[in-house]
TrEMBL record:
Its EC number is 2.7.11.1. Keywords: ATP-binding, Cell membrane, Glycoprotein, Kinase, Leucine-rich repeat, Membrane, Nucleotide-binding, Phosphoprotein, Receptor, Repeat, Serine/threonine-protein kinase, Signal, Transferase, Transmembrane, Transmembrane helix. It is an enzyme of class 2 (transferase). It comes from the Eukaryota. The keyword RNA-binding does not apply. This is non-specific serine/threonine protein kinase. It is found in: Cell membrane. SMART domains: LRR_SD22, LRR_TYP.
Amino acid sequence: ITCDYEGRITDIGLPKSNIKGELGRLNFSCFPNLQHLDLGSNNLSGSIPSQIGSLSNLTYIYLYETNLTGTIPKEIGSLRNLEVLDLGSNNLNGTIPLEIGSVRNLEALSLDGNKLSGVLPIYFGTIPIEIGSLRNLQWLDLSSNKLSGTIPKEIGSLRNLKELDLSSNKLGGVLPQEIGNLKSLTALSMDANNIGGPIPSTLFRLTNIEYLSLGFNGFNGSIPREIGNLKNLTSLSLGGNKLTGHIPSTLGRLTSLQILDLSSNQLHSSIPLVIGNFSALSYLDLSDNRICGIIPDELTKLSHLKYLNLSSNLLSGQIPFAIGKLFNLASLDLSKNKLSGSIPTEIGNCSELRNLTLNHNSLNGTIPLEMGKILWLQNLDLSHNNLSGTIPKTLPPMYLDMSFNNLEGEIPTYLQGHPPKSFDSYCSLNVRIKLRNSTQELPRMEMCSSKNKLSGSIPTGIDNCSKLKNLTLNQNSLDGTIPLEMGKILFLEKFDLSHNNLSGTIPKTLRPMYLDLSFNNLEGEIPTYLRDNPPKSFVGNKGLCGQVEGFPSCSQCQKLTLSIILSVKIFLPLTLVLAFTIFGFILLLKSKSENPKLVSRAAKNGDVFSVWNYDGKILYEDLINATEDFHIGYCIGTGGYGSVYKAELPDGKVVALKKLHHSETEDSAFVKSFQNEARVLSTVRHRNIVKLYGFCLHKRCMFLIYEYMERGSLFCVLRNDDEAIELNWTKRLNIVKSVAHALSYLHHDCTPSIVHRDISSNNILLDSNLEAFVADFGTARLLHVDSSNRTLRAGTYGYIAPELAYTMVVTEKCDVYGFGVVALEILMGTHPGELLSSLSSSSGPKIMLIDILDQRLLPPMN
C-alpha cells in the first residue's frame, strides 16, 4: 500500500495475498486519491460495487481471478482516467455496459473467461458499437464468454490496438472490412466462433501481425494470395473452416512461420514446393483435406519440424526416404491416404518420435528393424496395409496395432513379459513420458495383432506384462493351450483369442471383462464366473459344456463308463489312506497352533479373512504393513462408512482398502449381513464396476479390498480445472455410458438384483485413462425383486431421489435418479443443484442446453 506526501492512499497492490471477503465491504469513499487498485488472484466474493465509479483518479484496475459475480457496473464509465481494466477469469454475467465507451483513455481491456451473455440463460450479450470510442486501446481480450451478434465495424477505429482476442464466443456474421484499419495489430484471434463468409482482403494490410488465428469458424472461399504480404507471421491457423481451392504459392513468402494449421477444410491440389521455405516451422497440420499428389522432398528440409500431420487426404506415392532427416520430429501422422511402397528404413533416424501413425494406406514390404532405434515411441499404428514378414523383436511401443496386414511368424519375445533391452536403463519410463503412474512398472500396454498369420503358442511368461490391458490375437494360427498365468494380469480388460487352433480347457483363473474364445478346439467346463459373457464368446468349441445357453450341461457329458468304475475300485482304497493321512496332518497342525508364536493374526479369535482370485498369497500382515497399520499418511479419502487407504503390496500391486468405522464392526447384525453380502458382491464382474478382491473381519478392524483407481473420484476431477479440461466431451460421454452400463448390469443381470443406493460423483472412480468405474458398495444392499427394502440411511445429499423422503423405500429408480444428477454434473462441471430446483418449477425460465455446459470446454461441434 502506497501513500502520497500527505499520507493519502494512492496505491493498493495486494495480488495473490489470499485475501478473503466481499469486495463490496471495502469503503471506496475512504480512498478518493486512489490511482492503482490491484487485488488480482485473491479469494474475494460478491459483485463489483457501483461505488467504484467515485474513484475518479483511478488509472489501473486489476480484479482478475477473484471469483467476482454479478454484472459490470455502468458507473465504471465515470472513470475517465482509467487506462487498464482487467476483470478476466471471474463469473461476471450480463452485457458489456455501453458506458465503457466513455473511458477514452483506456489502453487495455480484459474481460476474458467470464459469462458475459446477458440475463442468463435467455438473452445473449453483444459487443457494443461504443467500443469504437476507445481510441487509445492497445489490448482487448473478450475471449471465452458467450458474446453473440456480429463484430461491429466501429472496431476499426481502434487504430492503436496491438492485440485483439475474441475467440471462444458465439459471434456470427462476417469479419468486417474495417479490420484492415488496425495497422498496429500484432495478434488477432477469432477462433471458435460462427463467423462466415470469405476472409476479407483488407486483413492482409496488417503487415505487423505476427499471430493470426481464425480456426473453427465458417470461413469459405479460397485462401487469398495476398496472405503472402504478412511477412512477420509466426503462427497461422485457418483450420476447421470451409476453405476451398489450392494452397497459394505466395504462402512461401512467410519465412518466419513456426506454426501452420490448414486442417479440416476442403483444400485440393498438391502440397506446394514453396513449403520448403519455412525453415523455422515446427508445427504443420494439413490433415482432413483433399490434397493429392506426392509428399515433396522439400518437406524433409524442415529440420525444426516436431509435428507433421498429413492424414485423411489423397496423397499417393512413397514415403520419402529423406524423412529420416527430420531428427526433431515427435509426431508423424500419414494415415488414411493412398501411400504405397515400403516404410523407409531411414525412419529409424527420427529418434525423438513418440507417435507414428501410418494406418489405412497401401504400404507393403516388411517392418524395418531400424524402428527399434526409436526408444521413445509410445504409439505405433500400421494397421490396414499390405505389410508382410515377421514382427521385429525390438519394437518398443506401448500401443501397437498391426491388424489387417499379411504378417506371419511367431509372437515376438517382448510379449513374453521381457521388455526390450532398450528399456533396461529406463525402469521409470512412465515418468519420463509423463504418464500418470506412481510405480516403476511399464505403462499399460495394448497388443493388437489380429487377422495375421501368427503361429506357435502363447508364451507362458506373458503374465509379467502386468500392465497389459488389451490382448487381441484373433484370426491367426495359434495352437497349444491358454496359459494359466493369464489370470495374473489384473488390468486385462479385453481378451480375444477367437478363430485359432487352441486346445485344452479354459483356465479358471482368467479375469478379463471382455472375452472371446470362439472357434477353437477348447474342451471342458465353462467356468462359473465367465457365464455372464454371451454364448457367442464360446461357440465353435465342440468340447465345451456348462450352464451357458446352447451348450450341454457337463453332467450330461460325463457318462459312467466301465473304465470309470474300474478307476473307482482302484482309487477308493488309496483315497481312504489319503483321508486318514490328511486327518492326522490336521491334528498335528492343531497341536502346533497352541504355540502363540505360530498363530496368524488373520486367524485369531475366529476372525475371517478372504481374498478371491489374487494368487492366494495376500496375507493380513501384508496389508497392515503396506499401510503401516492404517497410518493417516496412506489415507486417500473418507466417507460416511469409513476411510480409504492406498496399499502397495510386496509384489508391486496396488489396492485400495476401505476400513469401516469402528461403530459398524461392533454391530453383530451388520457383521453377519456383511459377510453374506461381501461374498455375493465378489461375484460381480463388469468392466465398469470396481473389482472387490476380498474382505477382512477382525475384532480390531474390518475392511474391504478393492481395485485401485489412479485418478480418484469424478467429483475431484471435475473440480480441478486442469483435469476437467483434460476430460473432454468424448470422455465425458463415455463416462455417462459406462455408469449406465454398470447400473444396467446391477439391476437386470444380477440375481438377485443389486441396488447401489449411493450413486454420486464421489462414488464414480477413474483409472489412468479416465475410464469410469462405479465404486463403494458400503451402502449397497441386496434387493430381492419383491422386497420393499425400507431404509433410514441411503445416499448422498443432492443425489437422493425426492420420493425417498416420504416413502423410505429404496428401489432401482433411486439409482436412476442419482445417475441423472451425475449425468448433469458431468455436462455442467458442477453439481446441478440450482438447475434441478428451476426445472422442478413450472414457472421457471426456459433453459438452453448450451447455456449449462461446462464453460471450461469449448462447446461440442456436433
